[in-house]
Amino acid sequence: MRRAVRASATNATAAASDEANANAPSAFLVGIAWFFAHQLIGVGNDVIMKFTGANLGVAQVVFLRFLFATLTMVPVMAAGGKESFATDRVPLHIARSALLAGGIFLYVKGLTIAPIAVVTTLNFTIPLFTLVLARVFLKEKVDATRWIGTLVGFAGVMVVMQPGGAVFNPMWLVVLLSATMFASLDVLNKVFVGKESFWAMIFYTALFTTLIVAYPALTSWVPPTTLQYGLMAVLGAGANGLLYCLLKSFSMVDASALAPFRYTELILSATVGFLLFGEVPASSTLLGALIIVPSTLYVVWKENQKVSD
Questions:
Q1: Is the CB of residue 133 less than 8 Å from the CB of residue 185?
Q2: With CB atoms 3.0 to 4.6 Å apart as the test, which of 39, 165, 278, 288 could cross-link to 156 if both were Cys?
Q3: Per-domain residue ranges for the chain?
Q4: What is the pLDDT of residue 268?
């Protein structure tokens, strides 16, 4: 889930702030600190969704997450006045929300059936799916570098999944389907960004996603405990806090410079999964990560070379 929000923030804040140039080393370190804070919040959100998803339905978890995310955004929007709520792109908001609802539903489902480290590793494929979808729907040129990175990345996925192996769980495929939907959201964001205020994008996406998942959530409603309500409130606020930290990091450091630090999330998720859920990362998961991570970094490196040239 956090990767869809992350992609939206990346597109909406593509240019780093000019203020960062005044004190580059300091700004870089502070930006990295904000980025790590965003990762910590993201892993914490995963823990909450995995924990609550064991007792509540997936649709209910998604519904409560976005309901509280919407409620925590209301004061922010109200502070900006009526203009903050102005929008003339309701259909596009609904399309984004539908993709996000589907992606997060599958993501939460994946967390309930697979180790956190596996889910995190498989979601590293989002940039690879984005390359393919951008070529098909946006007619973007995909050169040999991008195709090589994509193919090697999928090889890493096969190592993690081990189709035909004794540990293979076909249900893990929902995580890849989730990654595909998040990648589709990335492509849609490229069309959307710059045509709507960023806060309006966040608020209406949360609002419409809440409405989309309301019916399936209510038809299988299980009365949450006080603890579960509290965790859902933290989850909703945490999603907005995650976004704030990400925006701060992108205001100080270029997105491409942050790319290598994304993969520390695997270390965080594997550590938390072990400490809280007793999940020991399989050797296939670690080996797959060693294939997926470099393949994505290779694409980032080559893309940076093109920009510098």
A1: no
A2: 288
A3: 2-308
A4: 81
